[in-house]
C-alpha cells in the first residue's frame, strides 16, 4: 500500500513544473540597447535560428520600451515562442544611451538569477540594432561577440571583463569600471578599445593601439599579447609578451601620495624588419620597447588623472593599506599623484632562426 | 499516557563518532547560501573575524551543554522536570520545543524560497512543502537511527560542492581582506551575533544525548563536528570577501549562489541548478533532526506518542510555510527567530548549567 502510494506520488508530481524545451523557446544570446524616440529605449534581442543543414542564422527582434526588462514581455507578444534569458552572453549598450547611466539599464541583470556572471557588457558608438543584425559568421551574434571577446581576453590585449567584474568595480570604493568598446567594421565586429566609466557614465576611451599597455597596467599578471615597436625610426620589431607582472607601490599615503609602478615583462621577438639580430640589437629593441611602453603608460595615467577615473584601482590598493582611507579625499588627491614608472623588459627568445 | 522516559534501550542508540555528523549536518544548511551578506553588512572585510568568534562561542556552548547533560543525566525535558519541577520546567521545555520547530520551519521555508527565486518561480508552495514533509515524516518516524543516517549522508554526499569554489578563485582578490581590523569591536561582536544564527541547531544535542552509546566519549566528536562546519564557514567567507567588493556583495541575498554563476563546465551552463538541487539533501538532516528533537520533546513533555507529535509539527509547518508568503516576511521572521535563538543559547544555557549544578550536580558529588 505504502509503495503504491509512493509510486502514485512520483508519477503524478513529476512534470508538474513548467518545462522549457530548447526547440520551443527563443534562446536570447545577446541584447542591445539603443536610444529610441520619446525617451524610450530600443531593445534588440538576438537569437540563433537553427537550420536543417546544421547552420545557424542570426535573427534579431526589436521593440521600443520605457523599461529595459519589460522588453522580454513585448518580444514574446510578437513571436510564436517565448523568449528566455538564460543564455545571454553579451549586453551591448549604445554610447549615447550610456550617457544617461549604464546602471539603469543593467540593474535588472543583477536581480535576474538566470543571467550568468560571465556575460559580457560592452558599448558601441554605432547603432546597436544594426551592429547585431549582420551575419558575421556561421554563429549567431551573441555567441560571435562572446567568442571574440573571450579569445582576446585569453590571448590578446583585452583586459579581463564581464558582468561580475563590472558590478564589482562599480560598487568598489576606489576603483572605476571599464567595458570593451565595439564597432562595426564592414562585415565584422571589431574591438576598438575600452570605454572608461566614472560611476556609471562613460567619460573616456582607450584606443586599440593603447590596449597592450592598458592591459598590462590594470591586470597584475598578463600573458600572450603582441607589441609593435619602432626602433630608430627605421626598423620595426613585433614582440610577443610571454608574461608580465605589474606591481604598485604606494608611498606617503596620508599627505602626499606617490605611486611607483613596477612592470616586469618577458618577451620574444616574432618579427624583425632587418634580417640580422645580434646581442646589441636585442638590447636596442628592449630599450625601445621600454620607452614606448613608458610613454604610453604615462599618457594613459595622465588621461585617467585628468578624467579623475581610476580603472587600475589605485584607490582600492591604498584603502587596503590605510585605515583612515576616505573615498572623497582620495579622489581629490588622485589627479595630483605623482606616478613613477619603472620597467624591466627582457627578451628571452628570438625564435627558431638565427 | 506514557511515562517520562529516562533511559533509552541500547538498540536505539548510535555510536559516539556519529555525533560529528549530527552536529555539523544541522549547522550546515541554508545559512551557507546567504550568511555572508548579513555579516558583511555589519563587519565588512573583518567578517571572517566575526565567523571565528562565533565558531569559538559555539565550542564553549557545546562544552556547557555537555556539562549540563552530565550533571542532569538525561535529556533537556527530564532535566527541566528535575530542576524546575513539573510546571515551570514544562514551560521552559515548551519554549525549547517551539524553538526546534522554528528551526525546521526557517530552514525549510528559506530553502523553498531559494528554489522559488532561482529555479521555479511558479511552484505551488503548498504541494512542494507537502512533498517535503511526507519525506520528512517517513524519515523521522523511522527513529533516531534513521535520522542519524540522513545526517551522515547529508554531510558526505554533497561534500563535493566545496570543489565548486575552485572556479571562483579566478576572480578572487585577497587584498579585499585588508586592512585587518578596521571595524570597531562593537561591529565585529554584533556581526558574530548574526553569525551564530548559521550555527544554530547544535542544541538538538540536548535532546538526543541519551541516544548516544557511551555519551562521555562523544564529547570530542561533538567539538569536531562544530570545528568542521566552523572551518567550512570560514573558508566560504574568506573566498566571498575576496570574490566580491563590499558594496557589490551586500546587494545579493544569496552570495554563494551568485558565486556559482561563475562556474562554467562543458556539460552544464548553470551550476546553481546542480547546487540548489544538492542543497535539497543538505537541508534534509537539518529539518529531520530539528523535528525529531521537537517531537521527542513533545513525547516527553505531554507523554503522547512521538508519531502523533510529529504529525502535529508537520501540519504546523505546512501552515507556517503558507503563512510566510513574501521575501520580506521571511527576512523579518528570520531576524526575530535569530534574536530569540541567540539569547536562548547564550543566556539560557549558562543559566541552566548553574541551576542544574546547584540542584542536581552538587548533591551527586556529595
TrEMBL record, chain A:
Subcellular location: Membrane
Example GO biological process: spore germination
Keywords: Germination, Lipoprotein, Membrane, Palmitate, Signal
Pfam families tied to this protein: Spore_GerAC, Spore_GerAC_N
Entry annotated with the keyword Cell cycle: no
Protein name: Spore germination protein
PANTHER family associated with the record: SPORE GERMINATION PROTEIN B3
UniProtKB/TrEMBL annotation, chain B:
Compartments where located: Membrane
Keyword Magnesium: no
Family matches, as InterPro entries: Spore_GerAB (IPR004761)
Transmembrane segments: 12-35, 47-66, 87-112, 118-139, 146-168, 188-212, 224-244, 273-295, 307-324, 336-358
Gene3D superfamilies: Amino acid/polyamine transporter I
A Pfam family assignment: Spore_permease
GO biological process, one term: spore germination
UniProt KW Iron keyword: no
Recorded family membership: Belongs to the amino acid-polyamine-organocation (APC) superfamily. Spore germination protein (SGP) (TC 2.A.3.9) family.
Record-given protein name: Spore germination protein (Amino acid permease)
Species of the source: Aquisalibacillus elongatus
Amino acid at each position: 500500500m505504502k509503495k503504491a502510494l509512493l509510486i502514485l506520488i512520483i508519477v503524478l508530481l513529476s512534470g508538474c513544473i513548467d518545462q522549457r524545451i530548447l526547440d520551443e523557446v527563443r534562446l536570447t544570446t545577446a541584447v542591445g540597447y539603443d536610444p529610441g524616440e520619446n525617451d524610450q529605449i530600443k531593445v534588440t534581442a538576438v537569437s540563433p535560428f537553427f537550420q536543417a543543414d546544421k547552420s545557424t542564422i542570426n535573427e534579431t527582434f526589436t521593440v521600443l520600451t520605457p523599461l529595459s526588462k519589460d522588453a522580454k514581455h513585448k518580444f514574446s507578444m510578437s513571436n510564436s515562442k517565448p523568449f528566455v534569458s538564460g543564455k545571454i552572453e553579451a549586453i551591448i549598450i549604445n554610447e549615447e544611451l550610456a550617457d544617461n547611466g549604464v546602471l539603469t539599464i543593467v540593474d535588472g541583470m543583477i536581480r535576474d538569477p538566470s543571467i550568468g556572471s560571465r556575460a559580457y557588457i560592452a558599448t558601441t558608438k554605432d547603432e546597436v540594432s544594426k551592429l547585431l543584425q549582420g551575419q558575421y559568421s556561421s554563429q549567431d551574434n551573441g555567441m560571435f561577440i562572446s567568442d571574440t571577446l573571450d579569445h582576446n581576453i585569453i590571448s590578446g590585449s583585452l583586459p579581463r571583463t564581464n558582468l561580475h567584474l563590472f558590478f564589482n568595480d562599480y560598487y568598489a570604493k576606489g576603483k572605476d569600471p571599464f567595458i570593451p568598446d565595439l564597432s562595426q567594421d564592414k562585415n565584422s565586429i571589431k574591438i576598438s578599445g575600452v570605454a572608461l566609466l566614472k560611476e556609471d557614465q562613460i567619460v573616456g576611451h582607450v584606443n586599440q593601439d593603447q590596449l597592450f599597455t592598458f592591459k598590462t597596467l590594470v591586470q597584475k599578471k598578463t600573458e600572450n599579447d603582441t607589441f609593435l615597436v619602432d626602433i630608430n625610426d627605421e626598423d620595426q620589431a613585433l614582440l610577443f609578451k610571454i608574461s608580465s607582472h605589474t606591481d604598485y607601490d604606494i608611498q606617503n599615503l596620508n599627505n602626499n601620495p606617490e605611486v611607483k609602478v613596477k612592470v616586469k615583462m618577458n618577451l620574444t621577438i616574432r618579427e624583425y624588419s632587418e634580417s640580422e639580430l645580434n646581442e646589441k640589437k636585442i638590447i636596442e629593441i628592449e630599450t625601445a620597447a621600454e620607452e614606448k611602453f613608458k610613454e604610453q603608460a604615462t599618457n594613459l595615467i595622465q588621461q585617467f588623472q585628468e578624467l579623475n577615473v581610476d580603472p587600475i584601482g589605485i584607490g582600492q590598493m591604498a584603502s587596503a593599506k590605510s585605515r583612515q582611507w576616505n573615498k572623497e579625499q582620495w579622489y581629490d588627491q588622485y589627479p595630483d599623484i605623482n606616478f613613477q614608472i619603472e620597467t624591466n623588459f627582457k627578451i628571452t627568445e628570438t625564435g627558431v632562426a638565427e | 499516557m506514557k511515562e517520562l522516559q529516562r533511559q533509552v534501550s541500547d538498540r536505539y542508540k548510535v555510536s559516539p563518532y556519529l555525533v560529528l555528523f549530527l552536529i555539523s549536518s544541522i549547522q550546515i544548511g541554508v545559512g551557507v547560501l546567504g550568511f555572508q551578506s548579513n555579516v558583511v553588512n555589519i563587519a565588512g572585510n573583518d567578517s571572517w573575524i566575526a565567523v571565528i568568534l562565533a565558531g569559538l562561542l559555539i565550542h564553549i556552548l557545546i562544552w556547557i551543554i555537555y556539562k549540563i547533560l552530565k550533571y542532569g543525566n538525561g535529556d533537556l525535558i527530564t532535566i527541566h522536570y528535575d530542576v524546575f519541577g513539573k510546571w515551570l520546567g514544562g514551560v521552559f521545555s515548551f519554549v525549547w520545543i517551539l524553538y526546534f520547530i522554528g528551526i525546521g520551519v526557517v530552514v525549510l521555508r528559506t530553502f523553498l524560497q531559494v528554489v522559488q527565486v532561482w529555479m521555479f518561480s511558479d511552484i505551488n508552495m503548498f504541494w512542494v512543502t507537502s512533498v517535503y514533509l511526507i519525506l520528512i515524516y517517513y524519515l523521522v518516524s523511522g527513529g533516531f537511527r534513521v535520522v542519524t543516517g540522513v545526517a551522515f549522508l547529508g554531510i558526505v554526499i554533497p561534500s563535493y560542492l566545496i570543489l565548486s569554489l575552485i572556479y571562483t578563485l579566478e576572480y578572487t582578490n585577497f587584498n579585499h581582506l585588508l586592512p585587518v581590523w578596521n571595524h570597531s569591536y562593537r561591529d565585529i561582536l554584533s556581526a558574530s551575533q548574526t553569525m551564530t544564527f548559521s550555527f544554530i541547531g547544535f542544541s538538538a544535542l540536548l535532546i538526543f544525548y541519551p541516544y548516544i552509546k557511551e555519551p562521555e566519549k562523544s564529547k570530542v566528536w561533538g567539538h569536531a563536528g562544530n570545528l568542521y562546519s566552523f572551518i567550512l564557514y570560514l573558508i566560504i567567507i574568506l573566498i566571498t570577501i575576496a570574490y566580491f567588493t563590499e558594496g557589490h556583495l551586500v546587494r545579493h541575498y544569496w552570495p554563494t549562489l551568485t558565486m556559482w554563476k561563475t562556474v562554467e563546465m562543458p556539460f552544464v551552463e548553470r551550476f546553481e541548478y546542480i547546487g540548489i538541487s544538492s542543497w535539497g539533501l543538505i537541508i534534509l538532516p537539518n529539518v529531520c533532526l530539528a523535528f525529531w528533537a521537537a517531537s521527542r520533546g513533545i513525547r516527553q513533555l505531554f507523554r503522547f506518542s512521538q508519531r502523533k507529535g510529529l504529525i502535529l509539527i508537520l501540519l504546523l509547518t505546512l501552515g507556517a510555510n503558507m503563512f510566510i508568503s513574501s521575501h520580506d516576511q521571511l527576512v523579518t521572521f528570520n531576524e526575530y527567530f535569530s534574536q530569540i535563538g541567540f539569547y536562548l543559547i547564550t543566556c539560557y544555557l549558562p543559566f541552566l548549567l548553574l541551576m542544574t549544578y546547584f540542584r542536581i550536580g552538587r548533591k551527586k558529588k556529595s
